[in-house]
Amino acid sequence: MKKILEVIGSLVLIVGVCGVLRELTGWFPFMGVTRFLTENVGFLHGRELFANIVIAVVGFAVLMTSDRMRTA
């Protein structure tokens, strides 16, 4: 379970950071996941940067949670 959480947390963190970089600099135009999440959800229009920051923080939180788990 620990490894699964580490992989999921790492992927979510990377997607969030790439989304933040895409919003600030225009890099990473291939990150379709962040585009889908931030451009197609109605209440997130105009808040794309905040949404990507939240995604990155959630990924970091999952990584910290997996770190606190004991290995079996």
Key attributes of the depicted protein:
72 residues; mainly alpha; 3 helices; elongated
Could you explain the architecture of this structure?
- It contains 3 helices and no strands.
- It has 72 residues and is mostly helical.
- It has one domain.
- α1 packs antiparallel against α3 (48-68).
- The relative contact order is 0.24.
Continuous helix count: 3
Task: Determine the N-to-C terminus distance.
Answer: 9 Å
Q: Which percent bin holds the helix content? A: over 70%
Low-pLDDT runs: none
What is the residue-averaged pLDDT?
86
Principal-axis shape equals elongated
How many runs of DSSP E, i.e. beta strands? Answer: 0
Strand percentage: under 5%
Name the quaternary structure: single chain
Write the layout of secondary structure elements.
Layout (H helix, E strand, L loop, with lengths): L1 H24 L6 H8 L8 H21 L4
Helix pairs in contact: 1-3
